[in-house]
Amino acid sequence: MAKKKAQKSKSAKLGRVVLRTGEALYEPESGPSYLAAEPEVVIGELDGPVGFAIANLIGDQTKGHSRVFAILNCDVQVRPTTLMVSKVTVNSEKYTNILMGSVQAGIANGVLDAVRAGDIPKEKANGLGIIVSVWLDPSVLDADKVDHEGLFESNRAATATALGKAMRGEPTIDWLLKNQNNVTHFFHEMGVKGEL
Fold this sequence. Notes:
The chain is built from 6 helices and 7 strands. By secondary structure, it is an alpha+beta fold. The chain has a single domain (17-169), classed as Ribosomal Protein S5, domain 2 (2-Layer Sandwich), CATH 3.30.230.60. The strands form 2 sheets. Strands 1-2-7-6-3 form a 5-stranded mixed β-sheet, sandwiched between helices.
């Protein structure tokens, strides 16, 4: 009984989720660079701006940037409703199959992991929507043997982390102001060093 009360109070305390954002970088300790995952997520109520965006995106497909729901497998869509949008222009069957296979399955499982962890209250799962902007490194096409399990795990972990950060409002503005001068954008630093 106490657990049910605690869950209800957490959900009630959360209130309406209009629109929250998060991102995460996951790089495995070893393996090819294409295993890195860096999703950017938007989460909010389906009867608000996120729901309207999902409806517009799914109904307005663009060549090379297909929008698809995150699924565990065909005919098994996850909740909260999750729409994947590719950051990379998709123009090969191999890339499509990897994106709509191992990556899609990893994202779907990451969403469910965020619910299981309590970052997304289970009671709100049917009323929330998520948009995941997906990065799959095009160098995956050059691999002789693609590490599908690695892609699955990295996208699963990165998605769950990004959703947790979104729901917790991380990083906070206080952390950002304190650490602004201590954080350097990786590619900016490479450019300054003449490495790009």
